[in-house]
Amino acid sequence: MEIVLIISLLTAAGAVCSAIYYRCREKKTLKNIRLMISSAKEGQFHESTFDESVLSAVECDFRDYLLSAGVTQDKISEEKDRIKELISDISHQTKTPISNILLYTQLLSEQELPESAEKCVSALENQTEKLKFLIDALIKCSRLENGILSLNPAPAEISPCINAAVSTLREKAEDKGIHIIFAPSDLKAVFDAKWTAEALSNILDNAVKYSPENSAVRISVLSYELFCRIDIEDEGSGIAEEDINKIFSRFYRSPEHAQIEGLGIGLYLTRQIISAQGGYIKVESEKGRGSKFSVFLPNA
């Protein structure tokens, strides 16, 4: 019995020692892996274990991963630089010709021309304005997507930004007899004033475009604990349920509104701008009962 007891004790002691050994070995391995990650973050990783252990294999795989990731990052940087140069070149090459076309059409419109010629000049000016808008929108989208265009959000009152957006659509709304209703608010949010005004004007442009004559577009501002919410509600034709998840896609146009002028890029650009500032957009709509776009900006 004593021998059996001794053997049992020795076995238990061996198991305990073995468990302690493997536990210490595991802690040491984890510690080494943490050191590997820390040195990789600082760009100073190098292999230190050259044997047949698992850690040595992990170091080797980690080194290969860092090398491939570094190459990928270099390729991404090079691609961004090429895109930046291309955007700059497109912007430079198209700006002068379009400005000249607009200038000459305006000079022509000031001359005494036959009625048929006046219509041609007017059509030429309209189409040139559309081309200018399309190129500007594409350049803005590309700059946002590639991180070339930087936004500078800062705490500020939201009302001046909304008023700036409304002012760009005031004339267009008045031509259709649409009233844009907004009661100024002293609420604040964190946003880039210039680009947020452009994002809101894109939503307002759609509200005016798809609303019937002599209707109203209402803007309101609410404050929550984390976000400031801007609601833009119209009395337009509404959005079909199957289209709500598509309207923020680039170049998407609902077949139902294909006859209405548009490029399908305004809402895409709007979401890019709002998302880049830590905000988001929600849509509520019902066919024949208008739409409500809610823009959420980080609360100040």
Question: Gist?
Answer:
The chain is α+β, with helices and mostly antiparallel strands and 300 residues long. The chain is built from 6 helices and 7 strands, in the order αααβαββαββαββ.
Kindly describe this structure.
With 300 residues, the protein is of the alpha+beta class. Helices cover 57% and strands 14% of the residues. The chain contains 6 helices and 7 strands, in the order H-H-H-E-H-E-E-H-E-E-H-E-E. The strands form 2 sheets. The protein has a 5-stranded mixed β-sheet, covered by helices on one side. A hairpin with a 5-residue loop joins strand 6 (280-285) and strand 7 (291-298). Helix 2 (54-109) runs antiparallel to helix 3, helix 4 (159-175) runs parallel beside helix 5 (193-209) and helix 5 runs antiparallel to helix 6. The radius of gyration is 31 Å and the shape is elongated.
Topology overview:
Blueprint lengths: L1 H40 L12 H56 L5 H31 L8 E4 L1 H17 L3 E4 L5 E4 L1 H17 L6 E8 L3 E7 L32 H11 L3 E6 L5 E8 L2
Parallel strand pairs: 2-4
Antiparallel strand pairs: 1-3, 4-5, 5-7, 6-7
